[in-house]
Amino acid sequence: EKGGFEHFMLKEIFEQPKSIKDCFRGRLIANDGKLVLGGIREYANALTNANRIVIVACGTSWHAGLVAEYIFEEFCRIPVEVEYASEFRYRNPIISEGDIVIAISQSGETADTLAAMELAKSKGAIVLGVCNVVGSSISRVSHEGVYTHAGPEIGVASTKAFTAQLTVLTMIALRVAHRKGTMAEQRYRSLLAELETIPAKVEKALKTDDQVKKIAELFKDARNFLYLGRGYNFPVALEGALKLKEISYIHAEGYPAAEMKHGPIALIDEEMPVVVIATRDSSYDKIVSNIQEVKARKGKVIAIVSEGDSLIPTMVDFTIEVPGTHDALMPMVATIPLQLLSYHIAVMRGCNVDQPRNLAKSVTVE
Ligand code: M6R
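A: This is the predicted complex of the input protein with 5-amino-5-deoxy-1-O-phosphono-D-mannitol.
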């Protein structure tokens, strides 16, 4: 059942080229410039004309929401707020007419997310779901929604569900941007074509496995890790840190790279591994200076860079190359080596990767 892999988590990491493809199969028709999202037909207009989108989720799904915030704001020019479902539900949130709530959940059973949706509904919001499990509570409570179709995810650490959530959210944003006219036709077409190449790019990113394993060997006994990213890669840093924490029990923090100088930089010394997601995008020059700041304090830098980067490898201790893509699609590719890093470190530390202590696959209690 693990398909020859030692753990479900590893199997699910390696399934991603296929699960992303399954997610857009029949929906993304790049040649015709078409996106067919049957799950949001009735509310497509409401979404296009939304004054505001509020995303509610927990954990990894919340990280997917953060990426979606940047995507919706850039592509559709709709203001987005991303809320922890547990915070949203307990503070009498303001929901106005024209607000759309999107709930993201792999299991579709997360108690706080479900309660946040019920609350939003009771205040008159239109609630859309992005779920992996067909027929789950969250999918039933939402007015409409889009399934991620990543297939069953068994490992407690979410991997393929995350990249499928990003795929769905990107498709929704592109659909809305196109209807709304906030994205030029040519750019829309090129993004559809680029999205279609992501499974092959993820496949290539998976080829870093051996190299990542060697790095894992060197850092498996670290007590702390920092993960830094900017822009679209900031949520990737949060997600990388969460993966490491939950399965290897190493304390890790994700930060927007520029926030480092407001506190966490005090932690950096030669003992501190710092994973920097520094792919070539619009914040590239800025992240290069953040790397310099870490190196000046003797931190050990592991950088995720775009293929062919010749500058960063001269500055850091280790580089892992991933194929380049559009800034907004990079999280799907850049997250792969981070999933592998946490997996290998956890295995080397003798941890139960598929069922880490104190955690459940779906958190049905608040
Ligand atoms: O099923 P959900 O997506 O609603 O679950 C949300 C979180 O509990 C989940 O993402 C959790 O953080 C994972 N263990 C992360 O790997």
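The two ends are 32 Å apart (CA to CA). The longest helix spans residues 185-206.
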